[in-house]
């Protein structure tokens, strides 16, 4: 069989991290060692350093493909196969081929090279893995059209991660080392944002770590390695379902926190017969605790508890096991050394920690056997068969038949006893066995009609008869108990699953939960009661009933069943008395009801806090505008009027015109400011809300530049295909005007300010880009505070209020206003607004740009 080639993949978090550069560097190293290596296809994207590395390497000419009156180039797979090199470089594993070739995807072309025995070195970004498509889209807002199946990448013999910090990658982008200069700003503002790059980097690291873990496990399995390799801390916590479990879990969490990358695996081992003394409630609570601490919970079946625990620990390559000190009493050690001692003796290289707790030596507590739960009719039938059957059989066999043997009589009595046990369970079977033994002894064992047995084999027959009857009765009883327990646990699990599903679906209203609890337990009324701490009285915060005539439950005394939730809340039901075993599920309903009540109150508090915060924000902007923006035009008007009224100076007509123009400009500015202040005052008092509607940025943004004295230095770039935004036109116009005015003020003379709009997912952005001195990261939030400017150095008009007012208006419209660095120097203000429900513009999709 021909040798199949090996695949090596360079994996990166984003474009530009250096995958192709690393692949070409590896090619030069192999070529220097004499390896027959060719470049089947490499995309250098006009990056000078990458293009330079292609020099000195043999390149297979590409084939040209015509598609829709355009010419494209693709890898010539047949030419590479004819050349038959030892190693081929094929860039961009997830690439989709131009229609017309025999393979739709490049990875399929690579498969052909591998089948021909050619080793392949390729590259791929983490966002192109098929399984991560939805995750990447949620992070970046971009759906990757070109994907490669995960299995293709997993089959690679080597996967090498090419990593780069987000800050370094953004610097490479800003310096023009990745994209062309005209694409840098858009890339940094969208896909290459620090948050996006950090999330993609984490995906790449986690995916690679998972593959390394899989390779390690495969190697251990192939070489039969059972010992533990301490690659990272894996701590297994052995749980018994007892109350000490939470102590063990927290202790293991503290141990894992002392090192980086620690992992907690809690495991509960139950016997194969299903009978256990573990508390399902305790196990559920411990599962929740483990998951809250970042660990995982596992349920393993095994009759040999120490062996199953060690097998699990070795299977997950754990290096530590945490167990609790035994709860057995001293006399119970006569039956064996216990799980802890056995695990410690046989653990080998795994460290075993025995943790003391409050339940030490208090006894494990054996499960209490309950009735068979066979039903009343079956129990009565079993008693009738068990008592009447042997008597009727004795009467029927009172006339001895020729050749009758004692063994035959025993089998007939045994059949009735077994039947009684199958129908009625343990006690009818035991009574039938006892009565049958007595009747066999007196009437059928020789000498008959006496309480003596002359023959030894008859004694053995009677004893065996009794033993079989007892065994059958015991098995039937245990089977009935298990069936009942399984049915009950299934009903409980279905109820809890329904309850959990309601949480996931968002059906978390208190009334719906109470109604579900009432229906589940067949009650007439269900209510959630809360005690007033001041008056010490109970009050009903939610109640449902089967019909209007049922007496409501207002206090615990009115209820047939009550489940306390903390010190001041209680779930109360009326209608019947519930058995104790039903209270376990009812407790889950009670806890969920209390959680819903808390969520409702927190939601109400959050709503009130949001309104207060929004009111405070608008009030702050209002006061700042009144104290500063209003004073500036008033001072200019007053100075101009005082100058005109002065008798000491003879003003020329030109000077008077300038002063009057200054008064007019100040009055216009006051008129605009007072109008906005009135709107803000109405917003602050809650008498009006921002009028959010579908607006066209092409209609609003140009109006915002109308009052700027230097509007001619502003360039507009608003595509015609841009979706509508949901905003208040007046507030948006004032916000854009303030931001642009700030940008013009700080831009170098003769350098235009760019106002560009674009869409990002379900948002619309207006970006105001200047080439001024910029603002350090530590000052970016401070410049939005009233009376603040970078450096607090006055320059021209204004006292540092415009950005504070602009942010207040934008946030009132449910948007954001943030500052970012402009690549190459300067500051970019980003106004982000929600996208209107209309998804597409009805205008043409061709982009257009205008300048002012």
TrEMBL record:
UniProt keyword Kinase, yes or no: yes
EC number: 2.7.13.3
GO CC term (a single one): plasma membrane
GO molecular function: ATP binding; phosphorelay sensor kinase activity
Reactions listed under catalytic activity: ATP + protein L-histidine = ADP + protein N-phospho-L-histidine
Localization per record: Cell membrane; Membrane
Membrane disposition: Multi-pass membrane protein
Keywords: ATP-binding, Kinase, Membrane, Nucleotide-binding, Phosphoprotein, Transferase, Transmembrane, Transmembrane helix, Two-component regulatory system
Main location per the UniProt record: membrane
UniProt keyword annotation of Phosphoprotein present: yes
InterPro entries assigned: HATPase_C_sf, HATPase_dom, His_kinase_dom, HisK_dim/P_dom, HisK_dim/P_sf, Histidine_kinase_KdpD, KdpD_sf, KdpD_TM
Sequence ranges assigned to domain Histidine kinase in this UniProt record: 625-837
SUPFAM superfamilies documented for this protein: Adenine nucleotide alpha hydrolases-like, ATPase domain of HSP90 chaperone/DNA topoisomerase II/histidine kinase, Homodimeric domain of signal transducing histidine kinase
Protein name per UniProt: histidine kinase
Transmembrane segments: 380-398, 418-444, 456-476
Superkingdom of origin: Bacteria
First-tier enzyme category under EC: transferase
